[in-house]
Write a structure and sequence with these properties.
The complex is a heterodimer of chains A (about 140) and B (about 140).
Chain A (H helix, E strand, L loop, with lengths): L2 H45 L4 E13 L4 E6 L2 E17 L2 E4 L10 E8 L5 E10 L1 H5 L1
Parallel strand pairs in A: 3-6
Antiparallel strand pairs in A: 1-2, 1-5, 2-3, 3-4, 5-6
Chain B lengths: L1 H5 L1 H42 L6 E12 L2 E6 L2 E17 L7 E4 L10 E8 L5 E8 L4
Parallel strand pairs in B: 3-6
Antiparallel strand pairs in B: 1-2, 1-5, 2-3, 3-4, 5-6
Classes of the chains: A alpha+beta (about 140), B alpha+beta (about 140).
């Protein structure tokens, strides 16, 4: 066997081994992750189905951004909810519930938000009830 | 020299095995990186759904199947299956269409296919729905 043939065979063995190994690794990891990925799809599918009428959330608002995303906090747990454009927003004034605007929601408010889960797993708020207004408390 | 030539096949096999193992590790790494966002999404979703911020998840639909404690419900062509917890509260809402509404506690066995239910659910660590409270709106 001359030197060139030997080098070529060596290179071929290295490349082939790497490729075969890579395929084995990918298939192994795919099999390992597939059940969890399937579970993700099923869970999100169930949550975004019409059978789930609402995911009720409750907490204090810690942040509101310009894209109508609200961060809620309750007992140290947090979540982000995107408030839909047509969402109904209510506030209690002297125990009377009245409809208000999105701009009336402030950081520090205690709210109840009825959400749905979109197909990509995001929480969308379609109704906000302000129980305790931070602005009113400050006055 | 003769000894080296004789050990060539063994060296080649070792080399091939080494690169096969390296390739496998590379494949596992590449695929796990690819799957990571999906796995993280489930983890994040379950964490949120099991957090204090989410006191309840409400489902409503018509019973299409009962298998032990697992109830399949449908609403507008969508289906979900909920496993009713052993200690779940199950009520029958009587007179839902009248002023005199009252509810009475019933057993799971009294729920039938075709009943309209409102089930308050939680999501377990694997993403499965578990029923905490069931209200049967159907007239029994």
């Amino acid at each position: 066997m001359n030197k060139t043939t030997l080098s070529f065979s060596l290179a071929a063995i290295i490349v082939l081994s790497l490729v075969v190994g890579c395929v084995i690794g990918v298939v192994y990891q795919q099999q390992k992750d597939s059940s969890q990925i399937q579970q993700t799809a099923t869970t999100i599918g169930n949550l975004s189905s019409k059978v789930v009428s609402a995911v009720v959330t409750y907490g204090e608002i810690t942040n509101i951004d310009s894209n109508r995303n609200i961060i809620l906090n309750y007992k140290g747990d947090t979540m982000t909810i995107a408030i839909e454009d047509g969402a109904k927003i209510y506030a209690y004034e002297n125990s009377v519930k009245k409809e208000v605007q999105f701009q009336n929601i402030k950081v520090g408010d205690l709210v109840n938000i009825a959400t749905t889960v979109s197909v990509d797993g995001q929480f969308k708020g379609n109704m906000v009830v302000i129980f305790s207004s931070a602005a009113a408390t400050a006055q | 020299m003769m000894k080296i030539k004789q050990s060539y096949p063994i060296l080649l096999i070792c080399l091939a095995l080494g690169f096969l193992i390296a390739g496998s590790a590379l494949g596992v790494f590449v695929q796990s990186q690819k799957d990571a966002p999906q796995l993280k999404k489930l983890e994040s979703l379950l964490k949120t759904l099991n957090s204090e911020v989410v006191p309840s998840i409400i489902s409503y639909g018509k019973v299409t199947g009962i298998d032990g404690r697992k109830i399949t419900m449908a609403f507008n062509d969508d289906l979900i299956t909920v496993k009713i917890k052993d200690n779940a509260s199950i009520y029958n809402l009587n007179g839902a269409d009248t002023v005199d509404v009252n509810q009475s506690q019933i057993n799971l066995s009294q729920i039938k296919v075709g009943d309209m239910l409102n089930v308050t659910v939680t999501v377990d660590a694997d993403g499965n729905f578990e029923g905490d409270e069931v209200i049967n709106f159907s007239k029994n």
